[in-house]
Structure to design on (675 residues):
């Protein structure tokens, strides 16, 4: 696929606008509060869309398309079970403490609620993981652009080696994000995230429309792929009877409770967008507005995967020529399928699964669909959407990192008393450092094949127990700092031990588990991940309670505004129904149940 | 005066929408619908983007004329 001048023009226009927003935002980034918290002056709808956009990074767009192609519409569980309930919970119950405490970050809330060591543990692990994640995402994007060959012609024209496409992609994306965050801080990032959100929708919605026309609509997909792909709850009674390899309990507890609440209710990348809101009411409505949009995101990020697999298994109008129901890994490849066979980069040969069949490169489902079915003009819109999703995800990580580093590490342990202008400068320099570290992490990923898996594993160990700490901290006033700290450590340790004792059925001992001894095998990696989370959360929850009961709690007077029972309840604001967070939350949950029933 | 993010969104969508519509109007029909979907996606989606951009611009201008700050919460 060659890009036309119009496609280049669209990409150039996008870059000019994001840089422009950064420059305009810079005029209002005069203080630490402006730079790190956007002056707490952003309207709810802007925060809500930024909240979604920061979580709609390239990895999510590509990964959800890949999962859609591999597992079908059951991937929507990551939204309807794995996001919406938690987003409602943080909006209705937790935001009053985050916003009301006037903490500048999630780790700072932990210091106010517990103690210095709990804050330090959370701040350091968050800062490290955020930067590494940003690097992983950057690596994935650069690798993807290289694989798609869209920039081959211009690089050849300029006489530059093809390997430079990888460097060019990384450095260009990093430089643009650097400029608009360095200048505009969180405000620059948030305004750009709103623009990027609309661009992502504008790029992927027509892909779904066009794709559905190709496969004969939803009915065509159902006919060609079978119920295993088009019913989210089919066979969920047992792990062996569905594509995910997880049973309903592991799914609802592991994903729907522990992992989902752990991310959406405690991760500062998420919470920071709501903390920039211009009022308590706006802060509470931020995740609720986001949830209202989020529940429909599966239709633009997962459906391309289903369409791609339908066009791969029967490229010539599958709606008219139904193919038998297929299982992941058993797709029959008719050339030219949308999803190519995965090639081992070392040997150049197709990669085979345990049954000796060629594996498909699911990560290319969405990008290949885009390049194959969009004509010139729309290719520019689609690639801009991909770039926008990458930048929004990266900017989300960088703004959260610079705030946590400046306030929770630098101000807490390096220079405690300094003028505001000093911290503003440190924030800007931290942005520079954070992006440089992300670039370094991206190159680290390109050097070591397994480092991505390893980093994701460590993050899972650290993240799994965190929600127990916040939950007990906000809703049980007896929880102590020692309890929280030891509970977090116990949760992380339990996650590691569980991983060391279990192994997914088709995997080898090592990074996938079983490195202590294989005492249990799971049907899938996903099942193992969910159960690690359940065990880690339970260990953290119980240890925190036990240690708290043995140690001295803070006085009630120190906990006002930080704990549910010691904080005056917020009166429901008079006005339109959509200003009432509780009512909004109930509507969102009913709508989510409706979507689950519709696609059951 | 606070910054109204609807202004850049409106301008960018209008510009991209018009560009893509232009391709849809002037491009080779075989290239624009190579897979026989019966849809000139450039023309249709370009128009959708341009209309969305125009609506955003109208909302921005109306807010400016009314002298109101960008949509915010008065609660």
């Amino acid at each position: 696929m060659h890009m036309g001048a119009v496609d280049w023009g669209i990409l150039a226009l996008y870059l000019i606008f994001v840089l422009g927003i950064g420059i305009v935002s810079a005029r209002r980034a005069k203080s630490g509060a402006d730079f790190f918290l956007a002056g707490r002056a952003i309207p709810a709808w802007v925060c809500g869309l930024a909240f979604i956009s920061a979580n709609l990074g390239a990895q999510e767009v590509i990964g959800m398309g890949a999962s859609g192609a591999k597992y079908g519409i059951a991937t929507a569980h990551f939204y309807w079970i794995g996001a919406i309930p938690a987003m409602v919970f943080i909006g209705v119950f937790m935001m009053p403490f985050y916003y009301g405490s006037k903490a500048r970050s999630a780790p700072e809330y932990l210091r106010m609620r517990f103690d210095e060591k709990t804050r330090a543990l959370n701040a350091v692990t968050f800062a490290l993981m955020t930067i590494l994640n940003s690097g992983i995402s950057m690596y994935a994007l650069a690798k993807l652009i290289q694989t798609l060959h869209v920039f081959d012609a211009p690089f050849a024209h300029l006489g530059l080696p093809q390997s430079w496409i990888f460097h060019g992609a990384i450095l260009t994306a990093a430089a643009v994000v650097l400029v608009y965050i360095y200048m505009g801080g969180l405000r620059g990032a948030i305004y750009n995230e709103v623009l990027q959100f609309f661009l992502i929708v504008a790029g992927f919605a027509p892909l779904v429309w066009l794709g559905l026309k190709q496969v004969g609509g939803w009915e065509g997909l159902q006919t060609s792929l079978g119920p295993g792909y088009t019913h989210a709850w089919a066979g969920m009674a047992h792990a062996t009877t569905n594509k995910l390899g997880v049973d309903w309990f592991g799914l609802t507890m592991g994903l729907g409770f522990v992992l989902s609440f752990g991310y959406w209710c405690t991760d500062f990348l998420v919470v920071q967008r709501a903390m920039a809101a211009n009022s308590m009411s706006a802060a509470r409505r931020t995740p609720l507005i986001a949830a209202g949009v989020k529940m429909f995101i599966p239709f633009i990020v997962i459906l391309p995967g289903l369409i791609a697999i339908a066009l791969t298994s029967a490229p010539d109008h599958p709606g008219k020529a139904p193919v038998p129901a297929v299982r992941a890994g058993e797709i029959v490849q008719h050339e030219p399928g949308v999803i190519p066979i995965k090639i081992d980069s070392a040997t150049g040969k197709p990669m085979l699964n345990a049954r000796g069949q060629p594996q498909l490169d699911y990560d290319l489902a969405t990008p290949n669909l885009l390049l194959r079915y969009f004509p010139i003009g729309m290719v520019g819109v689609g690639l801009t959407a991909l770039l926008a999703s990458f930048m929004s995800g990266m900017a989300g990580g960088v703004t959260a990192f610079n705030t946590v580093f400046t306030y929770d590490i630098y101000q807490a342990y390096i220079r405690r008393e300094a003028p505001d202008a000093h911290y503003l400068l440190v924030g800007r320099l931290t942005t520079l450092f954070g992006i440089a570290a992300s670039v370094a992490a991206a190159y680290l990923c390109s050097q070591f094949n397994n480092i991505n898996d390893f980093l994701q594993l460590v993050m899972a160990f650290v993240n799994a127990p965190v929600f127990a700490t916040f939950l007990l901290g906000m809703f049980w006033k007896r929880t102590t700092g020692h309890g929280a700290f030891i509970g977090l450590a116990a949760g992380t340790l339990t996650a590691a031990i569980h991983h060391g004792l279990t192994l997914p059925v088709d995997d080898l001992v090592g990074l996938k588990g079983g490195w202590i001894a294989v005492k249990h095998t799971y049907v899938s990696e996903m099942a193992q991940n969910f159960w690690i989370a359940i065990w880690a959360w339970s260990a953290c929850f119980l240890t925190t309670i036990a240690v708290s009961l043995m140690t001295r709690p803070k006085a009630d007077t120190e906990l006002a505004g930080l704990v549910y029972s010691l904080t005056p309840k917020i009166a429901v604001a008079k006005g339109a129904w959509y200003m009432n967070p509780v009512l909004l939350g109930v509507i969102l949950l009913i709508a989510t149940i409706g979507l689950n029933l519709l696609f059951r | 005066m606070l910054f109204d993010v609807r202004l850049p969104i409106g301008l960018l969508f209008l510009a991209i929408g018009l560009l893509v519509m232009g391709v849809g109007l002037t491009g080779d029909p075989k290239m624009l619908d190579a897979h026989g979907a019966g849809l000139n996606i450039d023309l249709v989606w370009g128009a959708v983007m341009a209309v969305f951009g125009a609506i955003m611009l109208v909302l921005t201008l109306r807010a400016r004329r009314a002298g109101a700050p960008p949509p915010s919460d008065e609660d």
In short: Helices of chain B lie at 6-26, 29-32, 41-65. Residues 10-65 of chain B form one domain. The mean pLDDT of chain B is 86. The CA atoms of residues 41 and 74 of chain B lie 41 Å apart.
